[in-house]
Amino acid sequence: MTQQRLAFDHYISYGEQIRRVARDRPDDAAVTLVHHPDASTTRLTWAELDARSDAFAAGLAARGVGARSVVLVKLRNSIEHVLVTVATWKLGACVIPLRYDMPARECDQILALAKPTVIVSLDHVPGFLSLTPDQIPRMRREDWRLADARPGKAVCSGGSTGTPKLIVDPLPWGNPGAVAGTAEGHCLQPLAELLRLRPHQVQLVCGPLYHNAPFGWAYWGLFFGHHLVILERFTPQGAVDCVEKYRVEFMFAVPTMMLRLMRLAGVADRDWSSVETLFHGAASCPPWLKRQWMDLLGPDRVAELYGATEAIGAAGIRGEEWLAHPGSVGRPLGCDLRILDDSQREAPTGEVGMIYMRPHHAGPTYEYRGSAPAPMTEDGFITVGDFGHVDEEGHLYIADRRVDLIISGGANVFPAEVEGALLEHPQVVDAAVIGLPDPEWGHTVHAIVQLAGRSRPTVEALAEFMKDQLAAYKLPRSYEIADRIPRDEAGKLRRSALAAERTGSTP
After folding, report:
1. 468 DSSP 8-state letter
2. Looking at domain 406-503, which CATH architecture does it have?
3. Which CATH class is domain 16-269?
4. Is the Ligase keyword given for this protein (predicted)?
5. How far apart are CA 415 and CA 421, in angstroms?
6. What is the widest separation between alpha-carbon atoms in the chain?
7. SS3 content of the chain, % helix, strand, coil (to 5)
8. DSSP conformational letter for 370
9. Which of 8, 183, 218, 249 has the greatest number of beta carbons closer than 10 A?
């Protein structure tokens, strides 16, 4: 297959690009929503996507949305999510995707920071102009003007402290150039080349659109003419069925999804031949699981990307390179990389420190609302709090965030490493590892595990299994069997919250 490069040679707004694709391919599928649990579908052609998002845009404009407005989209994965998002960008406004069932206290904190012009939600949100998708008036295209603006977005994050904040694109409204012909557009190019993102692919969207990675890659794909196959809710069976039925070429998954897919009965006998790239990120992937995926798809079709919503930089790696550098997330893409100690001094090669990145393009890449800026060196290197080290060839290896690091008897224990070892047990479905206070050791390693199977292993059997997996100081001193590990829909853990629940402290 010949790789088609993404075009970054001139500026075009998001709305205008949707309109152009609709003119060129009016009857082709743009979006297919796969409903849960019956796998029925709702489909939009490109002509329908353009026309119906125009109607939504006109209705939102009539309710006061325009350049520099904020539209908060509090919906499940749905056709309406796509229509409202595209309509908002056609008006030059900023989209904030928000979890549809976010608890009221956390939602109120986000709303106080966001101050949205309109909230689109199935539930009424008091104190704001809150509309269901059906309540947005449909009006003529002549009632509003297509904005010549870049697609603005902001996403909410609980952060390592548990205090909600917004991570805002620093130039979200009324500034052309993010899509093409600018520094940001050119920064996407190395990522696109690594991931083999190209025009007109079929992209499977497994994750919830209120999370940054599924949201970002889905809507970038739509800009480049992708047919988005969106799962209303992820299930392993549903995802594999879609790969076969729609001949999926591009897909993003978090390691939790990869594990559930790999444990699906008969997964190796399914047809994966269409998949050009399965890439993963957002959490640490156990090396043994990654190897299983490379055995299934071939190393050339498995990629990993490390980055942050703050867009300060990224690192990436494909399977062939990973096999020569197992455990690495790759080398920097579109940025400079340093590993610094607590005094912001360069750490020796191979020594774990804080990961700092500096993007190659000038200007801010994020703005926090509700939190102080991330730590930055005098020469512009920024950290979001992740730990890691580099090898002699400059490959980056991720450890854990400072807040999750367990220091037991003076030794550093990284939870992700212990969780990966636990997940090698065939009856461990999921695992979370935290540190619990201890008067002698400072903290001890505590494992929370979810088990499956008719004959489940005992705690003693798990402890015996782990003796062959890790050094003694990394082994859990205590175990807890849970019905379910409380991950969010993107597969992320809040270890600090789990620890707080068990100690009665504040996360």
Report:
1. T
2. 2-Layer Sandwich (3.30)
3. alpha beta
4. yes
5. 10
6. 72
7. 30, 25, 45
8. S
9. 218
Summary count for the chain: helices (H), strands (E): 13, 25
Q: Where are the alpha helices (DSSP H) in 71-167?
A: 79-90, 104-114
Cβ 282 vs Cβ 256: under 8 Å: no
Domain 308-398 belongs in CATH node 2.30.38.10: yes
Residue 332 amino acid letter = P
- Which DSSP string corresponds to 276-314? SEEEE-SS---HHHHHHHHHHH-GGGEEEEEE-TT-S-E
What is the Cβ-side half-sphere exposure of residue 153, based on CA atoms within 13 angstroms?
23
Nearest C-alpha neighbor of 73 from the set 16, 33, 20, 132:
132
Summarize pLDDT for 341-397 with one digit per residue, the tens: 988 899 999 998 999 999 887 778 888 888 888 899 999 999 988 889 999 999 999
Dist. CA 256–CA 223, nearest whole Å:
28
Q: Report how far residue 394's alpha carbon sits from residue 349's, in angstroms, rounded to the nearest whole number.
A: 9
Which ranges of the chain have pLDDT less than 50?
Answer: 1-2, 9, 159-162, 172-186
pLDDT tens-digit map of 146-181: 888 777 899 887 544 446 788 888 654 333 334 443
